[in-house]
Design brief:
Length: about 200
């Protein structure tokens, strides 16, 4: 194992694998001297940085770590992993106290992992856009606005920043959103207490 000097961080494993892969490519060189030299260098390099032949195999599955920012972000990543890999290829890590961390480990081939990353980023952006529209539909359906005498011109500007398509989507979403009132919730709670 390579010894590190104080304050020296370990080399990035992926970069080391890329260097080793380039050396591996030289093993099929037409030049005998180049092949022999590449073989010696590659052997030393792999021992020094603890790289295995499986690490150099593009078709071998590896563990990749992805950090999420919130539960919905994690849930979407789990769904994307399930879409690409089926079940059992993705799990959340725990720290030494046994608490769940904000890191998901994905076991996949390198090419599949790239697809997972791209899909996760793409669908997360789209999900956030849709969530904002849903929020607006919820606010509209439940009329969470001040009385007219307390409203100002900025309230109208908010709707003007939406495109016609977004406004149509919000109106469509409103049909699937319930209208809630605090009084009804209080009445329901009283009925529950009375056992009605």
């Amino acid at each position: 194992m390579q010894k590190l000097m104080p304050n020296e961080s370990p080399p990035d494993k992926q970069k080391l694998i890329e260097k080793a892969t380039k050396l591996k490519a030289l093993l099929s060189s037409d030049q005998e001297g180049e092949r022999k030299s590449a073989n010696e260098l590659l052997s030393k390099f792999m021992i020094k940085y603890e790289i295995t032949w499986e690490d150099l195999d593009d078709e071998a599955e590896r563990d990749y770590q992805l950090k999420y920012s919130e539960d919905l972000h994690k849930n979407l990543l789990s769904q994307i992993c399930y879409m690409h890999l089926g079940s059992g290829h993705c799990y959340q890590t725990r720290n030494i106290q046994g608490e769940l961390t904000d890191i998901i480990v994905v076991r996949s081939k390198p090419s599949t992992f790239v697809e997972i990353q791209l899909d996760w980023e793409f669908y997360w952006r789209k999900f956030q856009e849709e969530l904002l529209l849903f929020y607006r539909a919820f606010v509209e359906q439940n009329r969470l606005f001040p009385p007219e005498d307390l409203q100002d011109d900025e309230d109208e500007d908010d709707n003007e920043s939406m495109s016609e398509e977004e406004i149509r989507k919000v109106h469509k979403m409103m049909t699937g959103v319930d209208h809630y009132t605090r009084n009804k919730s209080i009445d329901d709670g009283v009925k529950q207490i009375k056992g009605e």
